[in-house]
């Protein structure tokens, strides 16, 4: 018997196996590359669904009051868009004024900082080895003003993304069944009941996140408006509105939104800036460490460590948009982990075993 045909068949089989492996690896690389390119769209879609889930609470409230599901959705959307429009009408013009004011003051502010640094280095020459004089402040200002040329293009892109985002929210609120059906169809038939329970659990957590964000944001906004008004910081209403929305990003958002008023207060004197920075530090720590965990723990039933970890991880991986969707993502992770892993791996009670015997 000639062994060559058998050896040839084995070689062909090995070649086919390696070819299939290479094709699968190449396909995986292409899929990962594509997902990396559209990650912003995925996050935007996820956040739109999260907002639609949050709006399902007032829709259900109107339904319990006798409205039809479609009418309740329309009323909720009208109230939602009216609120967004009112906030934009109150905040955006003042925000634009404050930005122009800050940009106009920036050269003078940079000059003051450079003079203070030069005076400090003259009094303490040993610091020149650590902080050389003229450490790039002027160059940073040039780069900043050079970057302002792309603001108009970024603004148009932001408007387009906002239109797409709110359109997705409206479609999901008006008719959520196709989205829910598509979600359940991604699971095998035997797992769909678990998937539905996980979705409902995540929905309750997202609604709780929204309620907690509104309460915490309102407290922070009132505190910011009162303090900045007493300190005569321009645009107190603008910074209060930003502080309200910043608390939807746990621990990080408050410090990000503290930067503009602190910088603006530098033009009123260094001690004013110190007091403003101390106020934001104390208020963010009190709300973030004492008030927020209790409110979010009661409404979302999530451990604060999990929320902070997801916020930091998503912020580092995906930027500001990632930080914004981090808490809802933590809610979905907790729901799916509890439903598909913890319940499946839970030990069987002894009573059930004896009953089976």
Describe this structure in words.
By secondary structure, the protein is mainly α. The protein has one domain (39-122, 156-344). The protein has 12 helices and no strands. It has helices at residues 4-37, 39-64, 69-123, 137-147, 151-174, 177-185, 192-230, 236-246, 253-266, 270-300, 304-345, 350-356. It is globular, with a radius of gyration of 27 Å. The termini are far apart.
Helix content: over 70%
Structural class: mainly alpha
Question: For the terminal residues, how far apart are their CA atoms?
Answer: 60 Å
Beta fraction:
under 5%
Whole-number tally of structural domains: 1
Mean pLDDT: 77
> What series of H and E elements makes up the topology?
HHHHHHHHHHHH
Write down how many β-strands occur, each being a DSSP E stretch of 2 or more residues: 0
Biggest pleated-sheet summary: none
List the uncertain runs: 133-153, 348-357
Contiguous helical run count: 12
- Using only C-alpha atoms, the radius of gyration works out to 27 Å
Q: What general form does the structure show?
A: globular
SSE blueprint and pairings:
Blueprint: H1 4-37, H2 39-64, H3 69-123, H4 137-147, H5 151-174, H6 177-185, H7 192-230, H8 236-246, H9 253-266, H10 270-300, H11 304-345, H12 350-356
